[in-house]
Backbone:
């Protein structure tokens, strides 16, 4: 079997809601279905390039997260990291599942509120928040804020203590701990090492507590001021494909929680971040990846608290008094979406250098040029089927004026012709949300499918002339 066919077989098995027929059947728009909608409908309705999303695929992943968490913790929550994809239709759909949302800017706060999320189900993470941003969120009744810096923590605590009487509710603050661990992923996606801008080092927190308590005349005043600090947050990186490090991460979190209890704080909320990676072939239809991820964290947590009697007393032996949350982004949305683009023309510079020019570019689908990410791609509609056995190692490139503008640096695909249609998979996370108007190109179109029907089409326009 050729490499291409092996990939297709794998692709079929791994991606719920996508049905890619054999290569020889991919003409007339009937060789590819997204949640039973044929490609021909999509091509009729939209301009290319286009992102097509199955909302059911997203709901299913959220529900697997929720069910997995329910197996281990009485009190739990999911905050979908909307930076992965903030399309309003997706947000509204996720809101319907009962999940919350993780935001990193006031723009995301407003989009989440606009999509209907209750402020109590919103968690404001994010390094370098502006004061005006967290004040707007606090006054809007936000449920959770993850604090990334000790000055930020101090400012927010001061604000809460002086404004608490006029606020309808106080947020739960969590300390974002930098556990100083090395993870295997792209360097831009690591967030929990000593050289990372994210989070607070444990020893900095300890020093800060010891110094700042001297500013208070009584222990009670200090405890009252500090009381909104009720949680610990940790997120060590994204697109994590191995999990050996998590035991160490949990140990650091427990050490910090133990210290907090010793200092009369009450950390009853653990936010264990996102990070679960998505393989090249897409996600498992049974959600086994999520189930294993949650099981691993949960068993490590319950086993490792045995080292701390005080934690077991406060949280319960099975953490029944603790609220445990995760903030997944990529693993929820990546495999729900394909990026579809059309072939413009081809060029063969030498026996090794084969270029396929498509109408999508790095501004529409930026992960390959930003992270050298390899997304599986397939021809999903041929103008005419001929000589499928002739394959080339194509460099798939877009119209942007940069050599870094490529969608794939090496795609083994048959001979390609003008108007053939190519799909890139796992395009639901950090693709449309990172798209931009570089070269004054318009943003790609978007189509959303639910229960086998197209429910929304967005055909974006050219950016306005300033
Ligand atoms: N929580 C925090 C604090 C985060 O910084 C992130 C992602 C998440 C949760 C969600 O992580 P996920 O489950 O999606 O791995 N643009 C990059 C990814 C950047 C991730 C940023 N933070 C990419 O395209 O790979």
Residues:
């Amino acid at each position: 079997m050729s490499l291409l066919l092996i990939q297709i077989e794998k692709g079929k098995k791994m991606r719920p809601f996508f049905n890619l027929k054999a290569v020889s059947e991919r003409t007339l728009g009937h060789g590819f279905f997204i949640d039973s909608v044929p490609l021909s409908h999509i091509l009729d309705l939209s301009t290319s390039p286009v992102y097509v999303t199955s909302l059911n695929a997203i709901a299913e992943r959220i529900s697997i997260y929720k069910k997995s968490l329910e197996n281990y913790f009485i009190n739990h929550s999911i905050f979908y990291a909307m930076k992965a994809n903030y399309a309003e239709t997706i947000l509204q759909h996720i809101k319907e599942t009962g999940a919350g949302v993780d935001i990193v800017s006031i723009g995301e706060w407003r989009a989440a509120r606009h999509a209907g999320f209750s402020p109590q189900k919103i968690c404001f993470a994010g390094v370098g928040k502006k004061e005006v941003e967290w004040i707007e969120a606090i006054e809007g009744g936000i449920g959770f804020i993850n604090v990334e810096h000790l000055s930020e923590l101090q400012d927010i605590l001061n604000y809460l203590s002086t404004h608490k009487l006029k606020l309808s509710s106080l947020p739960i603050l969590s300390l974002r701990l930098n556990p100083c661990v090395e993870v295997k992923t792209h360097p831009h996606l690591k967030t929990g090492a000593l050289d990372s801008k994210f989070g607070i080092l444990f020893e900095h927190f300890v020093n800060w507590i010891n110094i700042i308590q001297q500013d208070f005349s009584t222990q009670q005043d200090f405890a009252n001021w500090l009381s909104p600090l009720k949680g610990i947050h940790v997120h060590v990186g994204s697109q994590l494909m191995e999990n050996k490090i998590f035991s160490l991460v949990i140990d650091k979190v427990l050490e910090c929680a133990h210290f907090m209890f010793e200092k009369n704080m009450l950390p009853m909320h653990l936010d264990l971040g996102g990070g679960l990676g998505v393989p090249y072939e897409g996600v498992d239809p049974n959600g086994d990846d999520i189930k294993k991820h949650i099981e691993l964290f949960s068993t490590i947590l319950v086993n490792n608290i045995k080292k701390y009697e005080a934690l077991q007393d406060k949280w319960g032996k099975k953490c029944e008094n603790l609220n445990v949350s995760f903030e997944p982004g990529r693993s929820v949305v990546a495999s729900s979406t394909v990026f579809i683009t059309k072939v413009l023309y081809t060029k063969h510079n030498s026996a090794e250098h084969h270029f396929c020019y498509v109408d999508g570019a790095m501004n529409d689908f930026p992960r390959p040029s930003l992270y050298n990410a390899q997304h599986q791609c397939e021809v999903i509609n041929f103008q005419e089927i001929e000589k499928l056995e002739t394959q080339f190692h194509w460099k798939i490139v877009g119209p942007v004026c940069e050599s870094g503008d490529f969608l794939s640096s090496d795609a083994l695909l048959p001979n390609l012709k003008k108007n053939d249609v190519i799909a890139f998979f796992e395009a639901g996370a950090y693709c449309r949300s990172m798209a931009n108007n570089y070269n004054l190109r318009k943003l790609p179109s978007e189509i959303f499918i639910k229960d086998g029907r197209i429910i929304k089409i967005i055909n974006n326009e050219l950016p306005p002339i300033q």
In short: Residues 1-12 have pLDDT under 50 and may be disordered. Residues 157 and 225 are 7 Å apart (CA to CA).
